[in-house]
Amino acid sequence: TVNGTSNNDTGRVNASLETKYYFSDWGFTLKEKWNTDNTLATELSVEDQLIKGSKLAFSANFAPQSGKKAGTLKSALKADHFNANADIDFDYGGALFHGSATLGHQGWLAGAQLSFDPQQSKLTKTNFAVGYQAGDFVLHTNVNDGQEFTGSVYQKVNSQLESGI
User: Fold this and answer.
1) Are the CB atoms for 40 and 32 separated by under 8 Å?
2) Name one GO molecular function term (predicted).
């Protein structure tokens, strides 16, 4: 696949060439992408091979001009009322661990997202959210890093009136 954009104001042109191969005998997909910033990206993924709903992937980025390299090991598990992800980012600064999970049952949703920096031995992100949906009514609240608290309430009263805070 070839993609491209041009900005007439700045004269900047962005383009990329992406290839995707599926190896059905081994059950994995290989994607490669090269863009006009001269960055190469590769992703190797396996889906539904170990457990139904699971996905394992490794992605790597390389910029030949600067020599900068980065990689990510990703895992995901999806089920009817459950979704979880665990990722590890690798670069020159070290590794970062990311995890998230979402549960849903009878209109209720709850989720958490965490990031951990092992070099500093500390959590860099802690986000939690809870929500409820019943018909035309939605309630949602979340806490980000224990510092930012948000919430919303929405209701569709009728076909001509909706309200939300």
Assistant:
1) yes
2) porin activity
β partners of residue 54: 77
Angstrom distances, CA of residue 160 to CA of 17, 133, 134, 164? 47, 20, 19, 14
What whole-number distance in Å separates Cα of residue 147 and Cα of residue 127? 10
The three-point CA angle 119-67-33 to 5° equals: 100
pLDDT tens-digit map of 102-129: 999 999 999 999 999 999 999 999 999 9
Residue 151 tokens read as 């919430």
Domain ranges of the chain: 1-79
Write out the E strands in 93-147.
94-105, 108-117, 122-134, 137-144
